[in-house]
Amino acid sequence: SEMLQRICIRNLVRKYCRGVSAERKVQLQQKVVASAVFRGKKEGYLQSINQPFMDTRLKENDINPKVLQLIHGEKIKYVTPVIKYDRNGFKARDRLLVLTQSSAYVVEVAKIKQKIDYTTLKGISTSNLSDGIVVIHVPEDNKQKGDVILQCEHIFETITKLCMLANKQNLVKVVQGSLQFRIGSGKEGTMVFTVGQEPQVFKAKNGQLTVV
Fold first, then answer.
1. If I label 155, which of 40, 42, 129, 144 is the partner at 20 to 30 A Cα–Cα?
2. Where does the signal peptide begin and end (predicted)?
């Protein structure tokens, strides 16, 4: 009886696994990574579990042809609208985050504002609160202007896609209170996370970027 029970369970599992479509398998793989990165660490994660990740939020047709020419040869894997905050004055600007097989691009209409090769990516930071802020940490060299500060509507989806494509799940940090980011030329800035009645992002009087 015990032997038959084990065989039956193995057979049921085998039938389920063989019946999973390729699309469903990708979803499950992404959700496993999201669980490892966010479960018990970031607010809003539990509510996101039953929401399937989209393949992309924008299609290639939504990207300016000039940008497509500049990244020619790289297969686009994911595109989403984001708000980028300047590293100095923290002015908010509408941008696109384009993820290819090998690089992440911050795009302004017909211009590539910043390119980050996954091999050089130093880390990905987000807070433990329900904001959609993500900081992409880059090396301190002449090719990079500094770390990238973005606000994403689909934060769990975007970070999961980015760290899987870069194969750097272990570099994602969920921080509490504050985090440091590189402005450029050896300078650093501070971002403070707090709780309030309404979500907002602004430059405080002390010069710090405050995320509510």
1. 144
2. none
